[in-house]
Amino acid sequence: MSTRAPAAGQAPALQADDAAAPRTERRLEALEIKASYAEDLLEQLNLTVYAQQQTIDRLQRELRAVVGQLQELRDGLPRGAADERPPHY
Question: Which sequence ranges form a coiled-coil region, renumbered to this chain (predicted)?
């Protein structure tokens, strides 16, 4: 840092800014690290949500298949007098 007087028309150098530069750089670095962790976390969450959606889709397909099989079983059963509702229903 120069200790010379500023030339005519120039503002004097601010020593406070020079002292704050390392602090600002440390804060910037800390923010960059936090942003990096946030990006990693977001990617992990996206992968988790994607995997969960795949599971939900598979379970829905399986449920539809089971419901269809149940309906086929019901349709295939003989309807007897015991299955019919009494007249008071």
Answer: 28-76
pLDDT digits (tens, 9 = 90+) for 20-66: 788 999 999 999 999 999 999 999 999 999 999 999 999 999 999 99
SS3 category, 86: coil
Q: What is the C-alpha to C-alpha distance for residues 11 and 37, in angstroms, rounded to an integer?
A: 41
Cα–Cα dist 29/35, whole Å: 10
- 85-88: Cβ within 8 A, 24+ apart: none
What pTM does this model have?
0.56
Q: Are 11 and 4 in contact (CB under 8 A)?
A: no
Tell me the two tokens of residue 26: 């440390």
